Amino acid sequence: MASFPPRVNEKEIVRSRTIGELLAPAAPFDKKCGRENWTVAFAPDGSYFAWSQGHRTVKLVPWSQSLKNFLLHGTKNVTNSSSLRLPRQNSDGGQKNKPREHIIDCGDIVWSLAFGSSVPEKQSRCVNIEWHRFRFGQDQLLLATGLNNGRIKIWDVYTGKLLLNLVDHTEVVRDLTFAPDGSLILVSASRDKTLRVWDLKDDGNMMKVLRGHQNWVYSCAFSPNSSMLCSVGASKAVFLWNMDKYTMIRKLEGHHHDVVACDFSPDGALLATASYDTRVFIWDPYNGDILMEFGHLFPPPTPIFAGGANDRWVRAVSFSHDGLHVASLADDKMVRFWRIDEDYPVQIAPLSNGLCCAFSTDGSVLAAGTHDGSVYFWATPRQVPSLQHLCRMSIRRVMTTQEVQELPVPSKVLEFLSYRI
Amino acid sequence: MERRKTYDGCEGPDAMYVKLMSSDAHEFVVKREPALASGTIKVMVSGPGQFAENEPIRSIVERPLHILHMYFTYKVCYTKNSTKLPIAPEIALELVMAVNFLDC
């Protein structure tokens, strides 16, 4: 069965340029599982990359150094020599200037990772600030790790120390995400069918439990203005939550199988979801319409086949920072880069057993983690966005689709602003 | 020491510059090649002589045109870079209609 629409010649699609790879160290003993890299993450300021190597360890890699190594030494990352090159004497001034590599032992299989940094203006929701153990300052970077036993551990990235241990989930914490507004609100999605909202500025106080899923919750994502949260899970579930009142806004229907990944576009006007039914859907989160469908199997499978083991599960999807490209990983050993206005990929790259992907903070690199614990990096397709698109993103950051429909502009421009071309 | 450069004019099909006039009579003289990023300007400039060389673009006021000029330069200089061009939402609405006309 084909991976591309019949009118597309696979050989004509451009192959992405590889930047580098981080290969997992050889296991001390041969284990069938426990090596998987379920999540990759970049720090919001681009300083670190978190690599969950499997076997319970997370390695915090200083990203700019790593990138320089890739470019200097070709594609293989010589991790040993780079850690030796770091200065031995680690004075306080040096700590901020040269990010150090850290290896963190989490004590259990790591399923999810998220970086969070705080913005001091965002007040904590709790009134009694003087009782808090931690005052998260401006230069604090946190890493949250979600584990197999349901615990979430919060680490300080610069020192590698454990700060908080959040205990409430009873099953695997499958995904974690911080609110992008710097308020250090953390949302965790778990196989125990709930999502929990934690306030890290309030010492990790759990504020709310979001119930509604009937089955495993696979992933969650905040909209860029932190007003909405999307959670996806087994049994075709795609839910949108209002994060001011913690109520469910709507359920998005359309997938035929478990939905395993979701991501908002940088202006919050589009939502991408990936499912085991071989498809990625691009939705308008404000009214639940499906705007685009990216297929990974041709001819498209019937609903019965799509709902079962069709060998073409899409495992991960990620929006690029220019709001025009989407990357997806599927079980046919390929990474695909899509433009949001074409229904066939603009670039592809080979990848076996890919599980997760994430764009770097500046959007120039895509990292993908695999089943054996390694990470591979590619250059993202870059082009100067049209001025129309830049205007559209600027407008959609502040306007919902309903507000856009009220604008006194010609209908063609309205369609363009609503991403309906 | 003051350097004096002579520039080619805006007249004629081989001119190095094009003059864009907004509806409130601001004139922008921009280099021809980056301005061709706009499909409409390309047609106007290199088309079969139906548009007068310095016909003002009537629907556009000065402020969006200024950003348009920034965009042309941005496009030429930053094709490989990831620098962002900041656009405030208030201007974006006027700009999106102008840019829809100019197709760029």
From TrEMBL, chain A:
Q: What does this protein do?
A: Probable substrate-recognition component of a SCF-like ECS (Elongin-Cullin-SOCS-box protein) E3 ubiquitin ligase complex which mediates the ubiquitination and subsequent proteasomal degradation of target proteins. Recognizes type II iodothyronine deiodinase/DIO2. Confers constitutive instability to HIPK2 through proteasomal degradation.
Q: What is this protein called?
A: WD repeat and SOCS box-containing protein 1
Enumerate the GO terms in the molecular function aspect.
ubiquitin protein ligase activity
InterPro entries tied to this protein = SOCS_box (IPR001496), SOCS_box-like_dom_sf (IPR036036), WD40/YVTN_repeat-like_dom_sf (IPR015943), WD40_PAC1 (IPR020472), WD40_repeat_CS (IPR019775), WD40_repeat_dom_sf (IPR036322), WD40_rpt (IPR001680), WSB_SOCS-box_domain (IPR051983)
State the encoding gene.
WSB1
Which cellular component terms (GO) are annotated to the entry? cytoplasm
Query: Organism, per UniProt?
Result: Sciurus vulgaris
Tell me where the WD repeats sit in this chain. 136-165, 166-208, 210-251, 252-293, 314-348, 358-378
Q: Does the keyword Repeat apply?
A: yes
- Highest taxon, organism lineage: Eukaryota
Biased composition annotated in UniProt, kind: Polar residues: 81-94
Mind telling me which SMART domains this protein's record contains? SOCS, SOCS_box, WD40
GO BP annotations, alphabetical order: intracellular signal transduction; protein aggregate center assembly; protein K27-linked ubiquitination
Annotated region (Disordered) at 81-100
From TrEMBL, chain B:
| Family matches, as Pfam families | Skp1_POZ
Enumerate the UniProt keywords alphabetically. Nucleus
> Which parts of the sequence belong to the SKP1 component POZ domain?
17-60
**What's the superkingdom here?**
Eukaryota
BP-aspect Gene Ontology terms: ubiquitin-dependent protein catabolic process
One cellular component term from this protein's GO annotations in UniProt: nucleus
Compartment(s) of residence: Nucleus
The answer to whether UniProt assigns keyword Nucleus to this entry is yes
Q: Keyword Nucleus: yes or no?
A: yes
Q: What span is annotated as the signal peptide, if there is one?
A: none
InterPro entries linked: ELC1 (IPR039948), SKP1-like (IPR001232), SKP1/BTB/POZ_sf (IPR011333), Skp1_comp_POZ (IPR016073)
Give the family per the record: Belongs to the SKP1 family.
Matching entries from PANTHER family are given as: ELONGIN-C
Q: What is this protein called?
A: Elongin-C
Species of origin reads Sciurus vulgaris
